[in-house]
Design goal:
four-stranded mixed β-sheet; 6 strands; 4 helices; Transcription Regulator spoIIAA
């Protein structure tokens, strides 16, 4: 829903709520002083691969350590998983520490099915 520039407070007069940008990001990234936390969303498909690549690339540019949170992932396809594999490989090549926090069963199974657990450095 476009935000009306005349509506400065961001409220939708029809609903009484705050208009929020519709975020379809496949990942939520939070930088702290010493760690970058990357939280993957519930479903990651081929349509998300490009945006995932862009967001992870930007996160890697300034990261010293990365915590990957895959707890929410219920469904992931091979394109998104390949992006994650390339991200993990790039982090390793740059000497950036990367650890997985709570990878979901679905994420682990998809990685295993494609033979990517080693590249992802994801241990069961």
């Amino acid at each position: 829903m476009p935000v009306d520039p005349a509506n400065i407070d961001g409220r939708d007069p029809n609903e009484g709520g705050v208009v929020m940008e519709n975020s379809m990001d496949p990942v939520e990234i939070v930088h702290t002083a010493d760690t970058t936390h990357v939280a993957l969303q519930v479903a990651l498909g081929a349509a998300d691969a490009r945006r995932l690549y862009e967001k992870l690339g930007a996160a890697l540019a300034n990261a010293t350590a990365i915590v990957m949170d895959g707890e929410r992932v219920e469904r992931i396809d091979s394109a998104a998983l390949q992006v994650l594999a390339n991200f993990c490989r790039a982090a390793r090549e740059r000497g950036v520490a990367l650890v997985w926090q709570n990878p979901s069963t679905g994420l682990q199974q998809a990685a295993q099915n494609l033979g990517l657990q080693t590249i992802l450095e994801m241990t069961p």
